[in-house]
Each structure stands twice: as C-alpha cells, then as structure tokens.
Design brief:
The structure holds three protein chains of three kinds. Chain B is mainly α. Chain B is built from ten helices and no strands. In chain B, helix 3 (86-122) runs antiparallel to helix 4 (124-139) and helix 8 (199-235) runs antiparallel to helix 10. Residues 1-14 of chain B have low confidence and may be disordered. Classes of the chains: A mainly alpha, B mainly alpha, C alpha+beta. Chain A binds chain C through residues 30-34, 36-37, 39-45, 47, 50-51, 54, 83-85, 90, 93-94, 149, 152-153, 156-157, 160, 163-167, 251-254, 256, 260-261, 264, 267-269, and chain C through 24, 27, 29, 31-32, 78, 81-82, 96-99, 123-127, 129-130, 133-134, 136-137, 139, 285-288, 290-292, 294-295, 318, 322, 331-334.
Amino acid sequence: MFRYIVKRLIEIIPIIFVVSLLIFFFIHLVPGDPVRLAAGKEATLEEIERVRQELGLDKPLLTQYVNYMHNLLTGNLGHSLKTGLPISDMFENRFSVTMTLTFMSLGWALVLGLLIGTISAVFRNKWPDYVGMLTAISGISLPGFWLGLILIQVFSVTLGWFPTGGVESWKSYVLPSLTLGAGIMSMLARFTRSSLLETLKEDFIRTGRAKGLKESVVVRKHALKNSMIPVVTIAGLQFGFLLGGSVVVETVFSIPGMGRLLIDSIAFRDYPVVQAVILLFSLEFILVNLLVDILYKALNPKIRYDS
Amino acid sequence: MEVVKEIGHNVVVPTEKKSRASEFWKKWKKQKTAFWAGFFILFLFVIALFGPWIAPYDPYEPNYDVTLQTPSMEHWAGTDEYGRDILSRIIVGTGISLGVSFSSVLVGAVVGTVLGLISGYYGGWLDRLIMRWSDVMFAFPDLLLAIAIVAILGPGLTNVVVAVAVFSIPSFARLIRGNTLAAKEAVFVEAARSMGAKSSRIIFRHIFPETVSSMIVFFSMRIGTSILAASSLSFLGLGAKPESPDWGAMLSMGRDYLATSPHVVIIPGIAIFLTVLAFNLVGDGLRDILDPKTKN
Amino acid sequence: MKFHDGTPFNAEAVKINFDRMSNKDNNLRAYRNYKYIKSTEVVDEHTVKVTLNQPFSAMINKFTTGIISPAALEKYGKDITKNPVGTGPYKFVEWVQGDHLTVELNPDHWNKGAAKVGKIVYKPVPENGSRVAMLKTGEADVIYPLPEQQVETLNGEEGVKVERTPSTITRYVSINMLKKPFDDPRVRQAINHAVDKDAFIKVVKSGYGTQLESVMSPTIAHYAKQGAYEYNIDKAKQLLKEAGYENGFTTDIWGNTNSDTMKGMQFIQQQLQKVGITVEVKSMEEATLSDEIYGIKSPEEAKMNMWYVSWSSADPDNAMRSLFSSENFPPAGANTAFYKNDLVDQSIKEATQSSDQDKQKQLYGVVQENVFKDAPWIFLAVDEILYGKRANVNGVYITPSGGIYVREAAFQ
C-alpha cells in the first residue's frame, strides 16, 4: 500500500509538468495582450513598450517559460500582472472560500444522493423510485447559471430567506452550494441506486435474507457498505466538475473565490494568475483522485494494484 | 461548466445476432418513462427537421411595437426584447441546439472510441500515453479550454462544436478502453487471434461490436451534457451568434429580463430542461436494457 | 489640512506628487497627462507654480488626479496602491482583492460633519440580476450601474429609489474609413440615416438615454449640437444607390461579449438589413477584441469594419483629439475609425494650444460640425447614468463620468 501511494505520487510529477507546459503555451497562444489592457485605450506605443519591459513580457517565450518554471520549482508562484500582488497572497482568502463551497456542495450532494438512491433501489419500480429518479435526473438537466438565477429570484428576492451572494455567513453558501451540488447529487443518486440493486442480488445478501434478517438491516448493514465503492469513485471524479462549476456559480452569486479569480484573470490575460489557478485546480483534482483510489482499496481489499 | 465527467459502466454484452432488434423492442416497451422520453425526442427531431415551416412567425423578424409581451393568443410564448415571437424561435432553435450537441458528441465519440480501442487493445506505452493524456485533459478546467478554443478559432457554432467535442473525447476513450480490455480476454477474440487474424480486423470485427451498447448508453447521456455545455458557453458570450435562436443564446440574452419579463428566460430554460431530461431518461432506459447486470 | 497619516498637505506635497507623475521612469498611467509638465516650483505653503513644456489648454482638467501623502509614498514605495493615503473625508481601511474595499470616516477632515456615514464598503457584483436583488433585499444601500432593463422592477418598490443623471458616455459604432465601401462618405451617411435612434433607445437602452447629436455628450464643455441624422430609409437607399451599392453589401460588426453590447449589435444588424446591408455580428472576448483593434502593426492591417463601442470623455480634448486626430490611428491611439480631415487636425491642434475659451469654443465647434458631417461613426446615443439606492440614503451621487461621490453620505 505504501509503495503504491509513493508510486502514484511520483506519477503526479510528469502530469503536473505537462499541464504547466500546456497552460503556459496555450494561454500565450490565445489572442490578447495584457500590456495593452493594463495601459488602457489611450496608451502611446512608447508607454506600452515600457510596461511590457517592466513586466518582462518582451523576452522570448522560451525564456519566460524557463523563468516561470524556475520560480515555480523554488515555490514562487509569481506576481499578478494586473495588481502586482504576489499570487500566494491573492490565493489566501479565495482558496478557503472555494473549498468551503465545494465541500458543502459535495456534502449535501452525498447525503441527498445516497438517500434518494437507496430509497429508489429499495422501492424499485414503485412510485418512490420514479419520484426519486425523476428528481435526480432533473438535477443534471438544468443549466447551472439558470438554476442559480432562479434560486436568487425566489429565495433571496421574493422570500428573503438567504442573501443573494457574498460570503458573510453560512447562509450565503446555501444557495450557491445547492446550485453547484445539484448535478453531483443526481449522479450519486443514480449510481447508488444501480450499485445497490446489483449488490442486493449477491449471494451474501441472499444468505442474510435467508437467515431471516430484516430487510432494513440487510440494506443498511450489508448492501450499502458494498455499494459504496462505485459511489466513492464517482464522487471523486465529480470533484473536478465542482471546481469547474465554481467558475459559473461564483459569477452568478458574486463569490470571491478561485473560480471568479480565474474568470477575471483570463479576461485580463493575467498569465501568471491563470497558470497558478489552473495548476492548483489540476493538482487538487489529481490528489483527490488518488485519495479515492486509496479509499477504494480500503473498501474493497480484493482489488490489487499491479499496473 | 456544466460538463459532468462521467464514467460509464464498463460492461460487455454477449452478442446475440438473431432478432436482436425485436428483443430490444420488447424490453424497450416495458421501460415506461424512457419509452415516453423517446417519443418526446422523436417529436423534437420532427420539429428540428420541419421547424422553419411550422413556426408561426419569422424567428429573426423584429417588431419594436410588441417587445417583451407576455404569452397571449397571438404569441403563445410571448415576445422577446426585439418583439420576436419566442415560440417560433424555440421551434427553429430546436434544430440548432440538437445539431450542435449531436455533432459535438459524435466527434467526441468517434475520436474517443478510436483512442480507447487502440489504448485497450495494444496496451503498453501507447496505452499509458493515451491514459496519461486523458488524465491531463480531466485535470484541465473545461472552461479555459473552451475559451481558448473559441478565442483562437473565433466565435460561432462550428467552434462551439469543436470546444464541446474536446471535452467528450477523454470520457469516451476511457469507457471504450475498459470495454476493450474486457473483450480482449473473451474466448472468441482469443480464437480469432490464434487463427492469425490481423489486429485491425480483430479490433473492428470482434472488439468494436462489444463496445457498441455501452457507447450508445453513454452517447445518449452525453447529449444532455453537451447541450448544457453549449448553453454555458453562450452564458459567457462565447457561444452561438446572439441573434440565433439557439436556446442557450436565448437564455443568456434574456437573463437581464428575468425580473421584469421572466417568460423570456423561463421558456428557453424549460425547453433545455425537458430536452436534456428526455435524453437522460432514454439513456437510463437503454442502460437498463443493455446492461445485463441490473436486469431482473 | 492633513493627510490621513497626519502629515501636512501643502505645496511641497503637491510638488512631490507632480514630479512623481511627470517622471517618465516611474511608469505611471498618469504620466500620459502629466508629461506636459516641465517643472513644478513651490511658491509658498499654499501655492505651486507649474511650467509646461508646450501650450496645453486642457491641462487644467488633467490636474484632477489625487494627491498622495509623500510620507506614505516613501514608506510603501511600489505598494502604495495597496495602502493609499490621501486627504479625503474617508480613509482607507482594507482592500480584500475581488471581494471588497472598505473606507472609514476621517475624523480630522477639514470639512468635518459633511459626511455622516461611519464606514463604506465597496463590493464588485458582476451579475446584473444579483446586483439589483441586493438592493431590493437591503444588502446594498447603493448600486451602480443599474441595468436599464431592471429599472421597471424597482419602480414602485418600497424603500428603493431610482436616480437618473445625464452621463459623459457616448454610444456609437466606429466605422473603418480606410476600407471599402466605408471610404465613401455617402455610404456612412446612408447607414446613419438607416438607423432609428429612437427605437435604439427604446429597445436596447429600455428607454433611458438621449440621441447622440454631436461627437460627445452635452455635459462636456464646448458642446455644439448638430442635430441627429434623420431616420429615413428612402434617403438611405438613395445615398447607397448614388454610391453604387444599390443592392447593399455584406459586412460585419464587432463588439465585446456583454449582453448589452450583443443587444446593440443585433439591433444594428436588424436596422441595416432593411436597406439591404447584411451584417454579421461578431462578439469577442474583450481582450481578443482589444488585440484585434489596437494590436495591429499599421492602419492598413486593420480587419475591423464596424465596432460597437462607447467612450466616456472627461473634457473636449479627450473627446476629440483622442478619437479624431489623425496622429491617433491605432496602434498609436484610439482613432479607430481612421478618420482624417486636415481642417479637423488643424483645429484640434490650435484649440489645444489656445487658452482663450471663446477661441476654443469656436475651434471645437468646427471639429464637431465636420466630424458629424463626415460620419466616421453611426451616432447612436448618450447614456443616462442610472443607479439605485435605498430611500434612507442621502448625499451619495454618481457623477456623469461614473464616479461615486460620497462626500456627504448620510442616512436619514
């Protein structure tokens, strides 16, 4: 197990390297000039060249990449082109905001998803199953920004129950995390259902039933635990989706998190910030997936990791 | 982004050549929700094909005297900010929205399937290369990719198709790879190999058919995802041309009127919702039939 | 008068600031306006004498840049942007990037008592709908900008007031005069006649705004009203016929991805369709757009045909020299229509060098008349500034140029 983890951790290095290389050249390929945007509409050519030099953007791309990697390897994310602030400072508040949002979304998506999924499986092809699955499928059939705007209109403006945005208290996170988590909830509900249905047919469950155990005990004690494996996998895979979704949700709810930062930095062609945010997103995604794989193994000792 | 990265069930279905279609139809009729959802999709296809002839008004024709009217006898779904008939726009837009999502998923499925087959069949460094590449793709936020693609190629529907297709490739590649790995071990493939059949023949004659059913399931679910992805691109102003009656564009252009004339936003939203819902229901139904493990 | 850090505000402080801004090596954005300063001398505690290196009539308007405490400049160096120290009625508390900026009442302000609110928090809220919702729920006391389409939802809402004020913002379509068929003035005039400005204001601006009847907003000095191009499709068709485009032509219009811009571009598309001109709407991300327009090597290289845009000007110099002087062709400036008229160039130059107000008025009048006639733009509208506030908020205004004025902020 330990060797496996070490091996996987080592495998992350080339992926991160390729991701950083890709982002760097990709973002420089996209048309747009941060210097022009920083200097403004009325800037003279001379002014523009001066700012370009000051920001080090006049150097050849390869030199810029070498410098960037050098800084990165020494733990320096660099400075924003737009504000001149160190990127690590800019991440400070935003990172925890986005993490709170992401985990809240994942949290309630897990609870509701498992609940709906279990009910649907137990009452297969009866009305609770239909209602449950329709709810679940509805959740992934809505455009996120649309759901967000409608939630604001109903719960903030009309009913006044929750704030329209910001991050002042836990209440501020309710609507955004509902919006962000809707898709995951659906996915989890569906996978829980099908996974549970599969497990309920296995021999040890039949044995349990034959021994005269109550159905609720069978489901709770035996089936659910074994159905968790694919569900955990899905939850892990969805993590990347949550990070991506935070971009739209943070815009709709004006939440100062990493997603908003990414959008703003892309709009401004703030290269170092864009690179840093994406690198962080990628790293998070990879680490979460590693964690999922480990959990997977813990839940199901039969799985070996040879390849 | 609305793109839900989903892994499909890695399932191998034993092939039964005889009367597969009638067998399928028998089971399909039993899937009540999926059956009706399938009907709805058929209905959408009819609208998509004949939309321009069915629409009561010209979907592009402005009429500044009747802007932002609520649904009435003349305009069943009301009018938008230029006084255009919303129902006509929804009808004509059906073809655009379905066309974009179908073509993008198709491109993603073809490329992804080829990669998955190669990866699964040959294994070794090719497999590792393709799988690591898909890891990278998964780790890369879709949004930036979309913005980058649209920024480089310019706005417009074709480029939206490309951007959305790119998201789909790694998911298909992984799914098909899993199926290929399983099918490779199957007795008949072993047999073909021992008889000296060429690799390309084995892949396309023996392995590919084994992956088709799970691909169909995933394909139908992916359609919904890509409709949502395209509408998110429109939300960011990078999707279909603003005048086009594409549902996502209608939603995004109308959102300033949510508080004053909610029908402008709610109607295209419902159109998207119902369509995506129908595709997901059909996908679920297909899975129940094609995936023997969850059969009763 | 004292800075927020307690150091005195005096002529010496002004000199230090002016020297800083007029020094090329500091790479400041303000250099653009302060480069005309040759030297600044302290005459006495409250007087400075500024010598310019050339006559520049608009300089008086450019002096509006804030003065920063010299002590703070020394203390923070490049980090001064994160720690501003001025003399105003509110002083800086904190700036949490992307979330909010907080200022608090300055108890030592020379005009103590005018501002009564203890603390002001500025929050960026990009989504239009969310911003309006915040005002309704009372989370925000003042919101700006208030999107035109949503004014109606606030009218009659209890506890909320909608305020309107004319702005310095002009809305127009810049036409590339170097390209065919736009090199023909009749084509440009025809386009102007083909667009119904009243309908534009009604449909795109939800009824808020006035027709643009010169090259700048009436709020700017030396404004000379020219009268709008009359909406007349027959006349437009006639002009196109004379120019040899009886059957119209195909072109495109560029703009950013804001929903307002996309709405405006669609409107132009619909209007020009009626005179046989087919317009393709191309919305581009702001950064891409700016690169396509300003990032060119030479004017001939410009791919732009029409650009749907707005301009907010502080003074006539900024409204006319920046946009119509031929020395400001991109990439060197913002004359994106590539407008060149020797009389206009000459008049702008003379006006810049003259300090006689009457002469300036006459010269700028010539410029406005000629530009309007030559039609390098589709002249659309002057925006109205719309903002919403809670009924109990007093003394907060949005200035015509979009500045937020809080010097007398108070709650009822």
